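Hi, here's the filled form for the chain we discussed.

Project: internal
Contact: R.S.
Residues: 178
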Amino acid sequence: MVTGVPVAQAATCAASAACDTTTTFDISAGALEITVPDTADLTNDGAPGGFAYGLLGAVTVNDARASATPAWTATVTGTSFITGGGDDPGETIANSSVYYCSGSATATTGNGTFTAGQTGCAAPGPATGATLAAQRNAYSHTTGTGNNSATWNPQITAVLALSNITGQYTGTISHTVA
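And the returned structure, exactly as it came back:
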């Protein structure tokens, strides 16, 4: 006989009685993650005094935490955009002149309330977005239970100054989720 090791007990029931087995299983939890495009090239270039704009590409939050309260908020911020060395003022478009508009989700799973940070995205023009100069709400989820996900394709609009020079401007748009 081995001591200290629990031994499963068998239930013995009469022929006419129900014989019950207590059964358990676990639901495993995953992580809260965000997926963004590696690179993006806005489809509509602009001239000084105009706008450059286009869709960033699919941004997806996947909440696999199997939570009773699966709330999350995805936020966005960004750097200034530069061409050349960015040394001349005409080689820089400040992040306060670059607008982000999340728009409605292109897909959602799970239950609860999904809320866009900005709606009514119109291009060209920044009238309905938030600048990348400060961290902004991109998308959020509240209420509901279990796992959920949301995907959106944000409109990016850069307001080009009359002093901007020709070139390919590069910057970084950063998303986080918590």
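Let me know if anything looks off before we file it.
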